[in-house]
Amino acid sequence: MIEGFPEPIKDLPEADIQFKGVRGWIAQGESHQIVFFEMEPLSQVPEHSHKYPQWGLVVEGRMELTIGGETNAYETDDEYLIPAHTEHSAKFLGRVRVLDFFGEKMRYKPKVR
After folding, report:
1. pLDDT, tens digit, 9 for 90 and up, residues 20-44
2. Does the global pTM surpass 0.70?
3. In the chain, what are the domains?
4. 52 in Cβ contact with 105 (< 8 Å)
5. Are 1 and 18 in contact, with CB atoms under 8 Å apart?
């Protein structure tokens, strides 16, 4: 198994993310973003929502994801869908990598170097 995302991914623009222990790299589209996330053990994303849907795939690890008040565990190869305007949060139970599609062009801005 690859340790973290490979260089072609890490050569993408890094996302400016304000959550401790969370990093991401942006693949930008005309009307969406795909973000390759790496989360440190025990990092969290607090409850929030956005105006567009979010689809994700767990590439590696295990996390607890709460979507609309319902908490489930997601592991390697599991998919999830977060509908638009739905409150959600996440806890990462170890080192976790996910791939998320956001149905909005500018969910994350690139980090200023």
Report:
1. 999 999 999 999 999 999 999 999 9
2. yes
3. 7-102 (2.60.120.10)
4. no
5. no
